[in-house]
């Protein structure tokens, strides 16, 4: 899977905490990625250079996170045929709705797959699912990941049924306070 690479770009280093979630899930699946900061507004030449050289660096997908005007994903997708996944970052004043609308409302012919506000992990998972369409080993890992999630939910439901909500919540609070 060394030839499978994902680019993770953020408009500001203040987005790093959210975008790190994409990196963590890619690492969990042993998929190589690169991460950088490039602003659609403050460094458009850098965005252009990064995007137009992406294929030659082996990138297959780019995840772009930005807040506020959040034009990064749209600018990137205008410069490449690679799939682009936009991550709207929660903003100070409009709580990320501005970022969401800027990322998801692209004009015809300029598609950006968009995940939820601050959903870096889902962006990484979507990138994995796209890559898995051409990689059976990665697909098997994703099936195992989803089966594990299902088992965890089932176990939580069984525990809740067995101990009741008061003990369940008390145990959750004890874990959070550690």
Layout of strands and helices, then pairs:
Elements: E1 5-10, H1 16-28, E2 32-37, H2 44-52, E3 59-67, H3 72-78, E4 84-89, H4 97-104, E5 113-114, H5 120-132, H6 136-176
Parallel strand pairs: 1-2, 1-3, 3-4, 4-5
Short description:
This protein is an alpha/beta fold and 178 residues long.
Q: What gyration radius follows from the Cα positions, in whole Å?
A: 19 Å
The poorly predicted ranges are none
What is the string of SSEs from the N terminus onward? EHEHEHEHEHH
Beta-strand percent range: 15-25%
Q: What would the principal axes of the Cα set say about the shape?
A: globular
User: What is the mean predicted local confidence, pLDDT?
Assistant: 95
What's the arrangement of strands in the largest beta sheet? 2-1-3-4-5
Let me know the number of strands.
5
| Largest sheet geometry | 5 strands, parallel
Euclidean distance between termini CA atoms: 38 Å
Bin the helical content: 40-55%
**Tally of contiguous helical segments:** 6
Structural class: alpha/beta
What does this structure look like?
- The chain is of the alpha/beta class and 178 residues long.
- The chain is built from 6 helices and 5 strands.
- The chain has a 5-stranded parallel sheet, with helices on both faces.
- Helix 4 links the parallel strand 4 and strand 5.
- The chain is globular.
- The chain starts with a strand and ends with a helix.
List keywords for this structure.
178 residues, alpha/beta, five-stranded parallel sheet, 6 helices, globular
């Amino acid at each position: 899977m060394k030839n499978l690479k994902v680019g993770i770009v953020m408009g500001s280093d203040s987005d790093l905490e959210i975008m790190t979630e994409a990196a963590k899930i890619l690492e969990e699946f042993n998929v190589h990625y690169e991460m950088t900061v490039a602003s659609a507004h403050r460094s458009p030449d850098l965005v252009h250079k990064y995007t137009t050289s992406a294929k030659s660096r082996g990138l297959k997908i780019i995840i772009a996170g930005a807040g506020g005007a959040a034009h990064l994903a749209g600018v990137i997708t205008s410069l490449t045929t690679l799939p682009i996944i936009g991550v709207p970052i929660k903003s100070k004043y409009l709580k990320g709705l501005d970022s969401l609308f800027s990322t998801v409302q692209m004009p015809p012919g300029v598609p950006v797959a968009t995940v939820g506000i601050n959903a870096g992990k889902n962006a990484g998972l979507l990138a994995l699912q796209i890559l898995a369409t051409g990689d059976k080993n990665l697909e098997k890992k994703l099936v195992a990941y989803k089966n594990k999630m299902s088992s965890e939910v089932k176990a939580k439901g069984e525990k809740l049924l067995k101990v009741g909500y008061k003990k369940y919540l008390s145990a959750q609070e004890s874990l959070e306070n550690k």
